[in-house]
Design goal:
Blueprint: H1 3-16, H2 20-40, H3 46-66, H4 72-86, H5 95-109, H6 119-130, H7 136-148
Helix pairs in contact: 1-2, 2-3, 2-4, 3-4, 5-6, 5-7, 6-7
Length: 149
């Protein structure tokens, strides 16, 4: 079952339960998935669906960060949206899993003692392997730690 079908099913359940707030979040997510589907003019792959969901999560986090602290109503709404969107987000890789992928990439590139000048090559080979599965900022931080050791 595609994520689009799953979101649609959850939205119907929220409507039946008269949970308007959850229905609104799911409706926005469904319209984002449909827009991507229409743009592509073909069924979305799981990676493409996950990318749409992660984009929605990122936008909500940015809205949360830019909301003034005195606007508690907006802060609560953003936190609720993040909770609902997280149900459909792909499972993120742990730091240990990212470290394992980094070591694999270093072995493939033949780099035994990584230098700062190698960061571009490492990131270029690494990012396609973890895209959509791990936070890019965390990956960048973990690769950066290789040069400090």
């Amino acid at each position: 079952m595609s994520k689009m079908d799953l979101v649609r099913q959850e939205m119907v359940a929220a409507m039946k339960a008269k949970d308007a707030a959850r229905k609104d979040v799911l409706s926005l997510l469904l319209s984002s998935l449909k827009a991507k589907y229409i743009d592509k003019r073909a069924d979305l792959t799981e990676e493409e669906e996950n990318a749409v969901i992660l984009k929605e999560i990122k936008q909500t986090k940015e809205a949360l960060d830019s909301t003034p602290p005195e606007r508690t109503d907006l802060l609560e709404e953003c936190k609720f949206r993040l909770g609902v969107l997280a149900e459909f987000a792909p499972q993120s890789m742990s730091e240990e899993e990212i470290h394992a992928v980094i070591q694999k990439v270093l072995a493939e590139l033949g780099i035994t003692a990584p230098q700062a000048k190698d960061k571009g090559r490492i990131m270029k080979a690494l990012m396609p392997l973890v895209k959509g599965k791990a936070d890019g900022g965390l990956v960048n931080q973990l690769v950066g730690e290789l040069f400090q050791a």
